[in-house]
Amino acid sequence: MKNLAPETLAAQAGGFIDGETGAIVPPLHVATTFLRDPDNQYRKGYSYGRPDNATVRQVESVLAQLEGAAASLLVASGMTAATTAFLALARPAHVIAPRVMYWGLRKWLMEDARQFQIAVSFVDTADPAAIRASLCSATRLIWLETPANPLWCIADIAAIARLAHQAGALLGVDSTVATPVLTRPIALGADVVMHSATKYLNGHSDVIAGVLAFARKDAYWEQAMRLRSMLGGILGPFEAALLLRGLRTLHVRVRQQCHSAAAIAQHFAADPRVAGVLYPGLRTHPGHAIAARQMQGGFGGMLSVRLINAASAIAAAAKVTVWKRATSLGGVESLIEHRASVEGEGSPCPPDLLRLSVGLEDAADLIGDLDQALGKP
Fold first, then answer.
1. Is there a single domain that holds both residue 295 and residue 230?
2. Cα(118)–Cα(128) distance, integer angstroms
3. Are residues 263 and 345 in the same domain?
4. Which of 79, 115, 181, 352 is deepest in the core (most CB within 10 A)?
5. pLDDT digits (tens, 9 = 90+) for 130-149
6. pTM to 2 decimals?
7. Cα–Cα distance, 160 to 166 (Å, whole number)
8. CA-CA distance, 121 to 61, in Å (whole number)?
9. What's 223's domain CATH number?
10. 2 an active-site residue?
11. Can you point out the beta strands (E) in the chain?
């Protein structure tokens, strides 16, 4: 059948049925080397495990379909995916990136990009005028993260795509938090979409993986493929199989996490013990209108709460029992983190902020646990 819903594609692993056994779960391919044909060719399409793997290909097919992409590239981590998106650019290059973004990539752009002839301008990407003012003749890429970790700022993908293309640049979007369940950036004009597949796509806190989804099979895509092959960044087949298993429940997980996150945000929005709740689903959020336009079916499973000061934030995190004090996000278990402690000196993250990743527990239990951790009003 054609034009199947994304939920169906994900749940059925892209419609795979093993031709030899009839298995509805794709087999795990662990071979690293393959037999040549008698005339020295590789007509079956595989020669060696570093550039390619059949299990990885299966997952890439599903991911490309979910993103509406021409192709996707599965790699060893979200950081591998993100840095590949920059290293695949023609150089010298100028790129524009958000002031508020995942700290690991921000750190790489600040400390390491220059040695690869990549100059970076950090701007408020929620403001298209700020992006326009930073464009120059050498700009190769505008990079967005929306919603942006950990303040959950919203960037207008369609508007910024137009700016990028008018300037002859590409638009890349880190859509880890939105997932293809809520936003499909390629349909809004993005050229490449990145996910830390460690997070929602896998969803079970047991795989490190990353993915790039490309709008076109062009020279940029070819260079990214070459980098994966030459630098050995491919994901292992065991991890790819676990990721595919996680993808099969992606839609039901994300929708439930959105529902619970919205309930938690609403509950604490007017709480006198909380200085502020940062969640795009709240009408008071400055990016709410844009988020409502480009996020379909929910506003994500991530939110942050700001307390009185850093000490009160750390003290509250110490008292939770249902929430788990751990790094990462997007898993079935709910996590809480004092983000400024992780990001360290120079972080734009306010010291009074707690980042919350909402899992699949009962929302009332999560609210009750936070309520007792905050103490008496």
1. no
2. 22
3. yes
4. 181
5. 999 999 999 999 999 999 99
6. 0.95
7. 10
8. 34
9. 3.40.640.10
10. no
11. 71-75, 93-98, 118-123, 139-145, 170-174, 192-196, 210-214, 276-278, 302-306, 324-325, 335-338, 353-357
Catalytic site residue 174?
yes
Token digits for 43? 């007509």
Query: Are 235 and 121 part of one and the same domain?
Result: yes
Contact 297, 255 (CB under 8 A): yes
Cis before 92 (ω within 30): yes
Q: Which domain holds residue 94?
A: 6-247
Burial of 367 (0-12, 13-18, 19+ CB in 10 A): middle
What whole-number percentage of the chain has pLDDT above 90?
A: 91
CA distances from 208 to 50, 78, 204, 267 (A): 17, 8, 10, 33
Q: For this structure, is 18 an active site residue?
A: no
Domains: count for the chain: 2
Indicate which residue of 46, 140, 174, 184 is catalytic: 174
User: Of 106, 140, 199, 355, which is the active-site residue?
Assistant: 199
